[in-house]
Amino acid sequence: MPKAKGKARRHKYSYNLNRKRLYRSARRRAAPRIACSHIRHAWDPSKSVAQNLAEMGLAGDPNKALPIPKKMPGMEVESNGQQPGKKTVRKPYVVNDMELEASLPEKKSNTLSRDIIDYVRYMIQNHGENYKEMARDEKNYYQDTPKQIKRKINVYKNFYPEEYKDFIASLKPEKMDVQ
User: Fold this and answer.
1) Cβ distance 165 to 135 under 8 Å?
2) What are the pLDDT tens digits along the chain (179 aa)?
3) What does the alpha-carbon distance between residue 41 and residue 120 come to, in Å, rounded to a whole number?
4) What string of DSSP letters covers 9-63?
């Protein structure tokens, strides 16, 4: 099998490049990638990760933050109410902001494609609740079974309940005019 044309060109070694210097400077500049904006704004780059997290009241290692007690059954451990090595939290607003953000209700992002919505509306408009007839319809391009069509209609009902009620209400006067 012949070799790819551009492959030899890609792997040419550059003798003029000082790789030791590049590697050292990249290692020195590397900072942790922080996803949470609250932590990012309170982060002090001159301190270590452990120091930054301790100031914010967060734990770097969950096993050290909440250790599992090694008790034998029947043995009781007495404590005077204070935990040894408790650190003061200098930036409590970080934890408070994170708790507030976590307590907000999650926005539902259930959506259907416009094609499925049009398909479901067409089927309901022309066939009502007759799923077997819907399965034989010529617009049933994907050859959905009656149960699959029913499931798609139920998904549409659940995702867009107000739109579905308005659509059904708009169909009733049409049926009255026909009779």
Assistant:
1) no
2) 666 665 655 667 788 877 776 665 555 555 567 778 888 889 998 999 889 988 988 888 888 888 777 776 665 555 555 555 566 788 889 889 989 988 988 877 788 899 999 999 999 999 999 999 999 999 999 899 999 999 999 999 999 999 999 999 998 876 555 55
3) 48
4) HHT---TT--HHHHHHHHHHH-------HHHHHH--TTS-HHHHHHHHT--S-HH
Query: What are the φ/ψ torsions at residue 22 (nearest 5 degrees)?
Result: -65, -45
d(CA 39, CA 52): 9
Residues with Cβ within 8 Å of residue 159, at least 6 apart in sequence: 110, 111, 112
Q: Is the dihedral of CA 60, 66, 68, 69 positive or negative?
A: positive
Rg of the Cα atoms in the chain: 32
Cβ proximity of 150 and 106 under 8 Å: no
SS3 content of the chain, % helix, strand, coil (to 5): 55, 0, 45
Task: Work out the number of other CB atoms within 10 angstroms of the CB of residue 123.
Answer: 24
Which residue from 158, 154, 166, 162 is spatially nearest to 129, judged by alpha carbons? 154
Give phi and psi for 36, each to the nearest 5.
-80, 130
